[in-house]
Amino acid sequence: MILVTGGAGFIGSNFILDWLAQSNEEIVNLDKLTYAGNLQNLSSLADDPRYFFVQGDIGDTHLVEKLLIERQPRAIINFAAESHVDRSIHGPEDFMQTNILGTFRLLEAVRVYWHDLLDTAKNSFRFLHVSTDEVYGSLIQDEPAFTEEHRYAPNSPYAASKAASDHLVRAYFHTYGLPVLTTNCSNNYGPFQFPEKLIPLMIVNAVAGKSLPVYGDGLQIRDWLYVADHCSALRRVLEAGSLGETYNIGGWNERTNIEIVHTICNLLQELNPDSSPHDLITYVKDRPGHDRRYAINATKIERELNWKPIETFETGICKTIYWYLNNQQWIADVQTGAYRAWIAKNYAELPQ
């Protein structure tokens, strides 16, 4: 079996669903269930004997040690992280606690567990750490995309905390020989993404007739990766990645934020010709330290592991829009009072 941390979040829950659709190997999901952790994402697995959920924190050493001893996982995929940049600006301490201290405590527990395994199990064990391209900082317009050799230059508390966790994982490989793998992905999108991120926020607000807030001039560039492609890349890295190596996972889909917003508006207007979602676009004050461009060079994972994304941005965004349109109850359930307070705090100048 494998242990997934943070498996009730956006990428983690997609990974679990994808894994169990393709394998009979059991999964234990350890998740703290913060604002972005949503067990409803995994409701289809309620009666699946291959799936087990444990509520808890990766920083809870006693709990993690107990899980490792009882469940004896052959691999750990670490998604657990505070991951929303805007939240890290308003409240960075949670990011330091989870992403740095939590990762350290998880690594310590795993190191002890791995050290005591018998040779066959010890040799096949893997610790896959899932990270972000934001650790690399920002690129100018024509600068080459991030490769695995790009220096770290994080510009937000979130990015800095993830950079620190990446360094810890690297150190545990070089110091203790822990069999680790690290991935750095570009911006994900798709089903179950919490609607404070750009794509789901635009879809949800446009359908509701609310303002579509665009930071600054909207010309920030991101590389967009459909979440199912990310999941397939992680499976491949876990299966065949070289120990101690880092693999960048990207979608080869660079777009400006305003292009994304207009694409969503165009598709929604095609579905409902009487709507005028473009009229809802509202430019708001840019956030502090907003990186101008991210771009992932995913050549290494294609060359060494024969992986590349299946979805284009055009196919992926259509699937995403249809998912949100067909899951209105899920949207209603995640839009709690806390979520609405967060939107009001970030976009206070917008009409509601």
How are the SSEs placed, and which strands pair?
Blueprint: E1 2-5, H1 10-22, E2 27-31, E3 51-55, H2 61-71, E4 75-78, H3 85-90, H4 93-115, H5 119-124, E5 126-132, H6 157-176, E6 180-185, E7 187-189, H7 198-208, E8 212-215, E9 221-226, H8 227-240, E10 246-249, E11 254-256, H9 257-271, E12 281-284, H10 299-305, H11 313-325, H12 328-334, H13 337-346
Helix pairs in contact: 1-8, 2-4, 4-6, 7-9, 7-11
Tell me about this structure:
By secondary structure, this protein is α/β, with parallel strands linked by helices. It has a domain at about 1-195 and about 225-250 and about 290-310: 3-Layer(aba) Sandwich (Rossmann fold). It has 13 helices and 12 strands. The strands form 3 sheets. A 7-stranded parallel β-sheet has the order 3-2-1-4-5-6-10, sandwiched between helices. It has a 3-stranded mixed β-sheet with strand order 7-9-11. α6 links the parallel β5 (about 125-130) and β6. α2 packs parallel to α4 (about 95-115) and α4 packs parallel to α6 (about 155-175).
